[in-house]
Amino acid sequence: MLELKNLTKKYGDFTVVNNISLTVEDGEVFGLLGPNGAGKSTMVSMISTVLSPTSGTIKVDHKFLQENPVEIKKIMGVVPQDLALFETLTAKDNLIFFGSLYGLSGKRLKRRADEVLEMIELTEKKNQAVAEFSGGMKRRVNIGVALMNNPKLLILDEPTVGIDPQSRNHILQTVKKLNKEEGMTVIYTSHYMEEVEYLCEKVAIVDHGSLIALGTKEELKNNVNACDTLTVIYQKASQEALEQISSIAGVHQTTIDQNQIAMLVSAKERNIIDIVDDIKNLGIALTSFKYEEVNLESIFLQITGKSLRE
Ligand SMILES: Nc1ncnc2c1ncn2[C@@H]1O[C@H](COP(=O)(O)OP(=O)(O)OP(=O)(O)O)[C@@H](O)[C@H]1O
Ligand SMILES: [Mg+2]
């Protein structure tokens, strides 16, 4: 469905997207994960023809985007990171307006707007001005706009940032449903690893414009270097405790956050119970500890030495 080859975007000497190659298969939910400023939106802008690449190629549905932009745009729906809606218009009129830009008209346009209102579950509020909507509801209308032309490829750029948990949940469910029931291929951009973990079969992790990991979640997790996370909670965590823990065999990448010290550990390298014993033997009173199996967050931490949230 989508093939990027050596995709690069530079602003002067500053490389924002650096030589990225990847393929998204038909029917896949593909996660594009990366921290702020990684270059995610720039990639989305190039795929949606808003920006042209400095070099490299983009193929959608086996056709070069640069050669067939009009044709390709018809099968793509893009939900931009920033809302693009008319606040004074109603939800339905926004859908009608943007649907007409896709070339829909008459009864087909009205019917599609009604269908989309059902999908985004805003039928009851369809005649209300978008200005009166919550952030989450506006996001849903923004997604609705991208669904008006019934795209084969739907690209969402951080659709859940800054909204309430209920709307967030609703958006995740809608994306799942569109993929399962309509067979839509989805590219889901986020810096929330739990969302990508939940939705996506395949994941690309980008940082500073470069692709640092690519594969199915299983492939990424089975990577020999992938570690689990052990967090110990103290009444008061000190820099001294951090240093002592850092020197324990099998402990990597320690970080301190208030009363917690987190570390990466690998069961392949050393028995976790032994590590916990060593920590207890330091003689600093522990309140509790928690253990999390390898996830995308720890993979990211492992590769870059920093957290996705920083
Ligand atoms: N027009 C521009 N000129 C110069 N630099 C730019 C321009 N647009 C974006 N950048 C820079 O490119 C980098 C990547 O930005 P981009 O918006 O693609 O990141 P992102 O991964 O989408 O981040 P976020 O999670 O914050 O949305 C940033 O460092 C940004 O400052
Ligand atoms: Mg962005």
Would you give an account of this structure?
By secondary structure, the protein is an alpha/beta fold. It has two domains: about 1-220, Rossmann fold, CATH 3.40.50; about 225-295, Alpha-Beta Plaits, CATH 3.30.70.100. It is about 35% helix and about 30% strand. It has helices at about 40-45, 70-75, 90-100, 105-120, 135-145, 165-180, 195-200, 215-220, 240-245, 270-280, 295-305, and strands spanning about 1-10, 15-25, 30-35, 55-60, 65, 75-80, 155, 185-190, 200-205, 210-215, 230-235, 250-255, 260-265, 285-290. Strands 6-7-8-3-9-10 form a six-stranded mixed sheet, sandwiched between helices. A hairpin with a 2-residue loop joins strand 12 and strand 13 (about 260-265). Helix 3 (about 90-100) crosses helix 4 (about 105-120) and helix 3 (about 90-100) runs parallel beside helix 5 (about 135-145). The longest helix has 18 residues, at about 165-180. The radius of gyration is 23 Å and the shape is elongated. The two termini are about 35 Å apart. The model has no long low-confidence stretch (mean pLDDT about 90). Adenosine-5'-triphosphate binds near residues 14, 16, 41, 158 and 191.
